[in-house]
Write a structure and sequence with these properties.
Layout (H helix, E strand, L loop, with lengths): L4 H42 L3 H17 L3 H17 L3 H18 L2 H17 L3 H18 L2 H17 L6 H13 L3 H17 L3 H4 L19 H8 L19 H7 L12
Length: about 280
């Protein structure tokens, strides 16, 4: 007969506490590490350092698989996929994106779906499947609007603008004007430059040459014909002819056009200027 059953129970509780507490702390630390790795992947992608993104994404995938964390496993696959895609290994990228989508649908994560649908759009656009690419961009936009995620919405709108540019359809202006306004308001320099290029392009296509060619120092011109209202001179300031160029040629023919313009201009062809979300 046990003389001290309560003492044994207390000892058992203390033993469990000593064993489980370090495990719990370790699990929490691991989750923080996974979160930091995902953030690192996002930053590297935004900086177009896709080789470094790939290395970080592979580590994220390995760690999350080891921890059986499906959310970060899917993020790892997504960043592996988009990195391969933007490094020119389209099929390898597409394979990983499909795996990421399978998990995203299983865990019902709309943020991941936004990223992956947008990436599918980039994949199809680079294969010149423009109708299918547009459909994917619209799916991504639908999820971004549902999440009220304005940054991702703006990036997707840039990609949609490119699809309309290929068709020479000025309907694309409404998307790029939204993206430009958001980028300008929130100080997103890269987004503002790319959106500004498309704004100027669509204005030129509409025959509003005065609007698309306004010089940076002409700050009094405001186009009020389309909502949301935007100062078209600002579009030109960010992505077109520099003030020191006194020619009447388009920017690529100007001997002193800026590096900012050149970065946008060289991507103007049928290959989409990708905006990973």
């Amino acid at each position: 007969m046990n003389k001290h059953p309560q003492g044994k129970i207390l000892f058992f509780i203390l033993l469990c506490w000593c064993i489980l507490t370090p495990v719990s702390a370790s699990a929490e630390d691991t989750l923080v590490d996974l979160c930091r790795l995902r953030q690192r992947c996002a930053e590297l992608t935004d900086n177009t350092d896709h080789r470094e993104t790939l290395l970080a994404a592979e580590k994220l995938f390995e760690e999350s698989t080891l921890q059986k964390n499906e959310l970060y496993e899917a993020y790892g696959l997504y960043y592996i996929g988009i990195s391969h895609l933007l490094l020119g290994r389209a099929e390898e990228g597409h394979k990983n994106l499909n795996r990421a989508m399978e998990i995203a649908e299983r865990i019902e994560n709309d943020t991941l779906k936004v990223n992956i649908y947008n990436s599918f759009g980039i994949y199809e656009a680079n294969k010149n499947n423009h109708i299918l690419a547009t459909d994917y961009f619209y799916k991504a936009l639908e999820h971004a609007l549902r999440l009220d995620d304005e940054l991702r919405r703006s990036k997707i709108e840039i990609n949609l603008a490119h699809m309309f540019q290929i068709r020479k359809d000025t309907t694309g202006y409404k998307y790029t004007a939204d993206a430009y306004s958001w980028g300008k308001k929130h100080g997103n320099h890269n987004l503002t430059i790319c959106a500004g290029y498309y704004c100027a392009y669509f204005r030129h296509l509409q025959g509003r040459n005065t609007a698309s060619r306004i010089w940076p120092h002409s700050t009094n011109y405001t186009d009020t014909s389309t909502k949301p209202q935007a100062t078209t001179s600002s579009h030109w300031q960010h992505c077109a002819r520099p003030s020191h160029c006194n020619t009447t040629h388009r920017p690529p023919q100007c001997p002193k056009y800026t590096l900012r313009w050149h970065k946008c201009w060289r991507n103007r062809g049928t290959t989409v200027n990708p905006m990973p979300s």
